[in-house]
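Following up on my earlier thread - several people asked me to post the actual chain instead of describing it. Fair enough. Here it is, all 56 residues.
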Amino acid sequence: MKKSSSSTSRKQTKPKVRKEYLKNISGGRGRGVFIPEDLPDPDEIRRIVDEHFKRQ
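Reply from S.P.:
Thanks for posting it. Predicted structure:
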C-alpha cells in the first residue's frame, strides 16, 4: 500500500535568480578572490615551493 505524498516530502528546489537581481551586485573585486590573470609563471611557483621546503 503506497502512502500519499505530502507537500513537505516533495523535492525542494532553489528559487531561480533573475537578471534584474544580478544588476545590483557590486562588480568590485573582493579580497582572496581567485584571479587567473594574476598567476605567477610556473618557474616562480617552483621557486616558492622549493624555498618553502628548504625552510622546513
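The chain has a mean pLDDT of 71. That should answer part of your original question.
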